């Protein structure tokens, strides 16, 4: 989804920067060394610098989401439908809350997409395992075929991107996204208390 793509872009950029050399004065210096020296210099002055531009993370994430939106538009797929189907893809069942958590979509948006899919015979709803009010969503055979038809070109594109990046960079990217998300969530929880 969008989160995967933005992180792929970010890690690829960092990995390339590790290999990138450029002239500084009369000698070569790696981009990573330059960034570290720049960051340390700012810290010494009392200025915190996560990246050369603190908004770069946000911009990269936004660009990835925009790419997925453009892909959906080019394939005449509603963006919200794409995300809901992506979340359900390969899952036996999933609650609407879990779909919201996975996609970042609102409950109302997810509910609207699920209702539409249900009316088309592409999903079925069943009572939740613990809380009976929470409905489990499952793709029907018709829904699985529909989902596979829509998502196959996207999965192929993502596979090509990951192949180009290479296994170690892709794994590094996934690890870093997971770490970022974990730390971000913990820091948000601390601030709520």
Chain-wise SSE layout:
Elements: H1 2-19, E1 21-24, E2 27-30, H2 31-44, H3 56-74, H4 79-88, E3 94-95, H5 96-103, H6 107-119, E4 123-127, E5 135-139, H7 141-165, H8 167-192
Number of helices: 8
Distance between the termini: 31 Å
SSE-based structural type: mainly alpha
Mean pLDDT metric: 80
CATH fold topology: Arc Repressor Mutant, subunit A
Number of DSSP strand runs: 5
**Tertiary shape:** globular
Give start-end ranges of low-pLDDT stretches: 17-32
- Rg to the nearest angstrom? 21 Å
CATH H-tier superfamily: Winged helix-like DNA-binding domain superfamily/Winged helix DNA-binding domain
Characterise this structure:
The protein is mainly α. The protein has one domain: Winged helix-like DNA-binding domain superfamily/Winged helix DNA-binding domain (Arc Repressor Mutant, subunit A). It has eight helices and five strands. The strands form two sheets. Strands 3-5-4 form a three-stranded antiparallel β-sheet. A two-stranded antiparallel sheet has the order 1-2. A hairpin with a 2-residue loop joins β1 (21-24) and β2. The two termini are 31 Å apart.
């Amino acid at each position: 989804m969008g989160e995967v793509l933005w992180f792929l872009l970010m890690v690829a950029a960092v990995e390339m920067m590790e290999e990138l050399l450029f002239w500084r004065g009369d000698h070569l210096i790696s981009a990573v060394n330059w960034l570290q020296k720049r960051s340390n210099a700012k810290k010494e002055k009392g200025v915190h610098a996560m990246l050369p531009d603190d908004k770069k993370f946000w911009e990269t994430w936004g660009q990835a989401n925009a790419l997925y939106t453009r892909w959906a538009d080019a394939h005449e797929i509603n963006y919200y439908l794409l995300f809901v189907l992506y979340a359900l893809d390969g899952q036996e069942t999933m609650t609407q809350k879990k779909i919201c958590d996975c996609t970042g979509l609102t409950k109302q948006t997810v509910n609207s997409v699920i209702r539409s899919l249900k009316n088309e015979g592409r999903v079925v709803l069943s009572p939740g395992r613990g809380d009976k009010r929470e409905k489990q969503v499952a793709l029907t055979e018709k829904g699985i075929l529909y989902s596979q038809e829509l998502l196959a070109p996207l999965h192929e594109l993502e596979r090509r991107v990951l192949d180009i990046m290479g296994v170690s960079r892709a794994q590094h990217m996934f690890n870093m996204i997971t770490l970022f998300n974990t730390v971000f969530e913990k820091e948000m929880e601390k601030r709520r208390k």
